[in-house]
Amino acid sequence: MTRTPExxxxxxxxxxxxxxxxxxxxEELCEECIEYGFDGAMVQACWAPLVSERLAGTxxxxxxxxxFPMGGDRPVSKAAAIRDAxxxxxxxxxxxxxxxFVKSGRFEEVGREMDLVVEASGDATVKAMLELGAxxxxxxxxxxxxxxxxxxxxxKNSSGxxxxxxxxxxxxxFLRERAPEETRVKASGGIKTLAGANELLDAGADLLGASSGxxxxxxAVGDGEY
Length: 226
What we know:
Strand content: 15-25%
Number of domains: 1
Number of strands: 8
Distance between the termini: 25 Å
CATH class: Alpha Beta
Order of helices and strands: HEHEHEHEHHEHEHEHEH
Radius of gyration: 16 Å
Shape: globular
Helix content: 40-55%
Strand order of the largest sheet: 1-2-3-4-5-6-7-8
């Protein structure tokens, strides 16, 4: 199915999470979200109050990330960070599980952490960044099942950074097949063209995380890092 740029824009969470992004760039991101009709603005939690203020009265969702991009924070730290981000204005939070524990077979501890962070999210939408590119088939299946059991609203192929890899039709198809219908799918990493965005949506993605949102919907080729 070929969607119009406007239709694709409504599925994009326009992303600026670089540590060097300054206030001017974050404010520009907000304006781009309004101008192009993006689904959400994804920023580091320190910018959530500013973005919440800038986007008040619009349909753009305020999004942030926790445990990103390493995932090794202690569970209580992640839970506290989620509560703080939500209190600061974040309506959706993407969370990185402990991938090192997954690689070590410590699935029970990963499951407990996931339960804790979902509880901490309260009424906010919470997404699990699963870093599929770093996992073997068994690890990938187990972590999706744990995220679903914990009650995450979305499963996500990657943080878009580190070893998680780019969003591919195969990885998004795997998530859509493995997760139940009520668990939605977000694709992130390396999405830079309208055609590529459409392919991922066709594969089962409900949302796209991209720093090249403007380029995607204007027909240029994106060069964003995320």
